[in-house]
Structure formats: structure tokens, C-alpha cells
Amino acid sequence: MDYNLRDGGPVLNPDAGDADPDRKAPYVNNGTDTKDPQRYYSADQMAREWEQLWTRVWTIAGVVCDIPEVGDVMTYELLHESFVVVRTGEGPEDVAAYYNICGHRGNRLVLQDFGHVGNRFTCSFHSWQWSINGELAHVTDSESFQPEVLECAPDMVPVRHEIVAGVVFINMDDTAPPVREVLGPVAGHMESFQVDKMHVARHTRTSWAANWKTGIDAFYETYHLGSVHPQTQPVMGDIDVQLDCYPNGMSRMIVPIGKPSPHFPDQESVNEGLQMMLADAGLDAAGFHGKAPDVRPTLWDQKRKISDEFNLGWDNLSDVQLTDSFATGIFPNVQFGMHPEGAFLMRFMPDAKDPEKFVYDNITLVRYVDDPRFKVPDWMGLPEGTDYMAADRPDVEYKDIGEPPELGLVLDQDSELLPVVQKGIRSRAFKGPLWSEQEQRVRHFHNELDRYLNGEK
Length: 457
Ligand code: FES
Ligand SMILES: [Fe+2]
Description:
single chain, Rieske Iron-sulfur Protein, four-stranded antiparallel beta sheet, globular, binds fe (ii) ion
């Protein structure tokens, strides 16, 4: 395989048809310019991002499985704003989204991350109420107001929302194109992995001392795996990933799993990591007599058997979808790692005040299978004892800067690295990132961001 990547790089499934989720997208030449590093720390950049990007772009507010009952709510904080998403009926799309404010004096209406309000929102300040459909329903001591004041008493202010594969997107801009149009092929990829049949097994929110784009940049490439996460080399690709850049800043990398990296010296032996993967899939690793290149086909067969046994409907998935990581960049601030058994929804949430701080919000979703014999694989990294069949979604685990993040080895390695990178980026000597074609998704992301900031979008 040729790894110069200057024509787009590897193709993992050469037989994929136009509509198939593993289809290689045409190479996008995003140029060679160097970006001014102030974009990673300046207050001016941060203000422009608020005006030009965050208030105009679709972002992910949450997943509908978190509000299963009528009257269930979840809140979503995006820099200076807070939104509340509420279930209003039994249908899959019976969901409303509002600015999370009280029209009386501006209090936040819903304070918790997730909860249940019944059929009304009640403000904690003076107990005004709104129905979950947004109509003003009660004004406390209304006779004490001059009538003119109450004439402009508002209903709740809706915010645009759309749902794709059980994922709720919101947008403050009423003139933005519909989310499916913006997502392009990514919407179909999410549907093919049946994300709407998953539910939340773990949710962590960790503060990191770096700009949100420093975070995105690191998660959008596998160039650093050999240096920062060498433990992945026996079982995971890096330079052999398939890289796809789509319109509107969307992108994807398919990371081959169940094979050694091309940088790993031994390409033949079934190393310890590969043996663990076989065992994790329910196979007899000790009795496996193949070589390393036989592991992936063996896993494909096994996963098809699992799909049949538990009626999971993975028949439509290609081989690479069964084993590999479909790490999908949903512009601007999400990496969504999708697999048949579950998905990792990672949001890089900018701090409202400090450009050198972001919250890494990581939701682990697992495919809901109502059969205790079904095993969520160990590679999903859920802590020992996680009850992934639990009726209630788990509480958010918060970790502030300085606390050990305890997100698993790979993510803990990233969390140590990024604040150091952020400090280096601030140096007078640093002239801006020099991206390889292994980092083409990063450049693709920054070019789209610039289109928003320059007024082209
Ligand atoms: S601020 Fe909400 S009722 Fe007064
Ligand atoms: Fe990393």
C-alpha cells in the first residue's frame, strides 16, 4: 500500500458502492496554507466564533433516548446559552426545544442535566409556569401586575431542532439549511449503525486546559498514535486509515481494528492484543491457528453470527463496519465513533469565557439488547460493573482540571498531552500548524471554520 496520502490515501473497501457507508469520498485538496496560531487562544477569535459560528451552526444537544417519557427534559449548554429539550408525546419525534430561560426575569428554567418536569415547567424564582408545549400557563399573583406588563408576557422561545438517528441537533439560526442537507452522507452513516437503537451507558464531562480546537485537532488524526498511544499499535491501524472529507466541514476516518499498524514490526503473529480481541468476541483465542491477517475475517464471521443470534440486523453492514472505528467529524465540534455494538459521542464544548479551556463531553452509547446473554465488548471501555441494561441513564461524571480524568488509558494520555500542546501553541516562536495529509481532516475542519468566520457561510 502506498502511504504518501497525497491522492487521498487508502481505501478499505474497494467494492463499496456509491451509497455504501464505507465508500471512499473523492479526495479534497484543502491547500497548504498555515493558519495563524492566535485562533487557538485569542479572545477576539472566541468572540468571532460566537457571532459567526456557534449562533449559526447545527450542534448536537443530546440523544432522544435520554428523554424517553413525556415530560422528561435534558439541558444543553453552549457557551452563553442554555437550551432545554423536552419530550412532548409518545412519537419518536415528539420533542420540543426551547431557550432555557424564564420570560419574567430571566432565570434558568431547568437547572439539572436530566430530569422530569411532568406537564409544566415551573420557574424556581417566582413560580411562573409554562406547558411543555411552551405556552405560558400560570403567572403568580397575576392581579398584582399592571395589565400592560402582562400583555407582553411571553411563551417559551423555541429553538430550531431536528433529529437524525436519535441524535438531537439544534440551531439558533432560522435561515440555516436543514441538518440533513448539512450532514450529507453522514446522516446515512449514523442510520446504518442504528444509533437510534442505542442508549447511554456512561457519560463523562471533563475540563481540559486547552482550546476546543486543540482537542478536535488531536482526535481527528491517527498520526499521533505511535507516539502517544503506542499500546494501540499491535491491534489498530494508523497510517492505513481511510480518510474522507465531505462538504460543510464534515469528515470521517475509518480506523482498521483487529490488525497491527503498518508501523508494527510483526505483521504475522497473532499478538497478545489480537488474542484479546478474539476472546472479547467470544472466540477461542488459544485454539486459533491463523495468522494476524486472518483475525479480521474471523471477527467478521463471528459478528455476523452474533447478529443472527440476537436478531441485531447487522446484515446491511459491510465487513469493515463490523470491526473498524468509523470516527466521524460532525462539524464543528463532534467526533462520533460509531460501531454496531455502540458509539462514542464526543463533544468538544468551548468554555464561555476562557478560550484556553474546553469540556470534553463523552457519551458512551451501547446497543440495547434485551437479553442478558448479550455481552457489550470490553474494548468499549466501560468501567467494571457498569449496568448497561439499567432502566435509568447514568449520572454525568464530572472532573475538573487537575483531577485524574479516569477515562481509560488512551484518553488519559490525550488529556495529559493537550494542555502541554496548548502552552506550546502560545509561544512567539510557533508560526502555525504544518499539517500532513494524514491530518487532512484537521485542515478540512479549519477551512470550514474560516468560511464561517470570513462571512463566506
Ligand atoms: S424569574 Fe421566573 S418567575 Fe420570576
Ligand atoms: Fe490521542
